[in-house]
Design a protein that fits this description.
Layout (H helix, E strand, L loop, with lengths): L2 H22 L3 H21 L3 H26 L3 H4 L3 H25 L11 H6 L4 H9 L4 H23 L10 H6 L2 H4 L11 H14 L1
Length: about 220
């Protein structure tokens, strides 16, 4: 057994264990952390397959952005775990059937092997021998042949980001918000107002009232 094969088995075992803990963890924060570990192990497997671009993209996009967002959302929303587990066993048979079907399909694909359609395609070993960088070749293809679709996708993501910011900036009736413009334009004299008020009871009158009460007592 080579070192690469041993690392593959180690990463695969950790990936399966962490993926199982994602669906069995009682704490949603722990489930998100196990999912982060799952993505890291999948990234290592991609690295062993010499797919550096996919490996780095998985870490940067999913672990660095999406999962961190999920973690903050789960921690801030204070999800009631007990209410989420209500009705779990009612949906378990359907979920088990779907899981068995997916496992059978994956077994059929893995046992049948992968058939190479193009005989002129360069294998992974040949690519390593020829010193071909898949990240470099993918970058050339994205910014030459698929430049316009890439720009369209970037514009769509920009519009989605602006829309998300606009949705969060709208006024809600169930929250108390203060306009940032009003906070900037406020002046020092507007922050404190001194009101002149007459005393309800003068000091001498108050002392005489207290003395009369003590005398009666």
């Amino acid at each position: 057994m080579s070192v690469t094969t041993g690392l593959f088995y180690i990463f695969s075992a950790i990936l399966l264990l962490s993926a199982f803990k994602v669906i069995t963890a009682r704490n949603p924060v722990h489930a998100v952390l196990f999912l982060v570990l799952t993505f890291f192990q999948a990234s290592m497997i991609w690295m062993l397959l010499k797919a550096e671009f996919l490996s780095l993209s998985l870490v940067l996009v999913y672990v660095g952005a999406v999962m961190v967002l999920f973690l903050f959302v789960v921690m801030m929303l204070e999800v009631n775990v007990e209410s989420l587990r209500v009705g779990f066993w009612n949906h378990f048979p359907l979920a088990a059937i779907v899981g068995v079907v997916i496992a059978l399909e994956m077994s059929a694909v893995l046992m049948g092997g992968f058939r190479v359609v193009d005989n002129q395609a360069v294998s992974v070993a040949d690519a390593g021998a020829l010193k071909i960088s898949n990240a470099k070749e993918l970058g050339k293809m994205l910014y030459t042949q698929y430049l316009y679709p890439l720009e369209v996708a970037a514009a769509i993501l920009l519009v989605a980001m602006i829309a998300a910011i606009a949705l969060t900036m709208r006024e809600r009736k169930d929250t108390k918000t203060v306009s940032s413009g009003e906070q900037v334009r406020v002046k020092a004299r507007d922050r404190l107002v001194v009101v002149q008020m007459d005393a309800t009871i003068a000091a001498t009158e108050q002392t005489s009232v207290v003395n009369k009460v003590e005398t009666k007592a």
